[in-house]
Amino acid sequence: MELRQDPSSSTRWWGKETRAIVTGGNRGIGLAIGKRLAELGVTVILTARDAKKGKEALELLRNEGLGDYIHFSVLDVSDPHSVSAFATWFKLNFGVLDILVNNAAVSFNGLYENSVKHAEIVIKTNFYGPKLLIEALLPFFRRSSTHKSRILNFSSRLGLIHNVKNKNIRAILEDEENLSEEKIEGVIKLFLEQVKEGRWENEGWPKEWTDYAVSKLALNAYSKILARRLRDSNISVNCFCPGFTRTGMTGGKGSRTADIAANIGAQLALLPPQSLQTGKFSMGQSFFLHSRF
């Protein structure tokens, strides 16, 4: 399923009444995808944990003529109280949600480092954060037989199952019929226990940015379960790896700009209903047709 550079008017299903939340929206890909969605006529709520930086991003986009389409609210996805407060604020101010882009994430490693010193924070932010936010916002998604709401979880190829060499862990994650949130959290608990015991390196976990990769491994698995759970609710759930992108997380290195990655992400978020799949993983221009990711 190849994507065109610009959605055509014949497949345009959205308008200003369409509401999208973009987490981690004060810089990098989050800011860029928020900008792109607003340019295409979607009402966008940018979020950031730092109020000052979020308001600066809001002002930047307002100065580019997008003030009618851009809003901002503080949100720290790693803080349950912040998530609850944001959900309440969203309900009061917007009420209905069409698109959720879970972009907010952290990594404490340099490009060629692989420390797990901050593994708990990484897991809490990158896996539990999106999961908690999704569950808090589920009541607000627009649901109808003709409309498909969308959840797009920004993920990474580092979290693909083939990077896990531990056969027992792979068996749990590949058994999709019996995969559950409890089993995913069991995998996370095992990883964090091994980190504390100092024996994670030889246990078959992904070799690159291990804590980040495990957080995305869990997010991918949860996305598959959620897609199955919401299939009859007309809410799609997909994952998107933006690739090696020049952002703060990569130290400004990468093979593509944040704008390029964001343009692809925006197109995935705005696919016409008849083309929109669920429970899939994208690494660029098309969704994988297989579900083992």
From TrEMBL:
InterPro entries: NAD(P)-bd_dom_sf, SDR_fam. Signal peptide: none annotated. Transmembrane segments: none annotated. Pfam families: adh_short. Gene3D superfamilies: NAD(P)-binding Rossmann-like Domain. Keywords: NADP, Oxidoreductase. One of its GO terms (cellular component) is membrane. One of its GO terms (molecular function) is oxidoreductase activity. Belongs to the short-chain dehydrogenases/reductases (SDR) family. PANTHER family: (+)-NEOMENTHOL DEHYDROGENASE, NAD(P)-BINDING ROSSMANN-FOLD SUPERFAMILY PROTEIN. This is (+)-neomenthol dehydrogenase. It comes from Chenopodium quinoa (Quinoa).
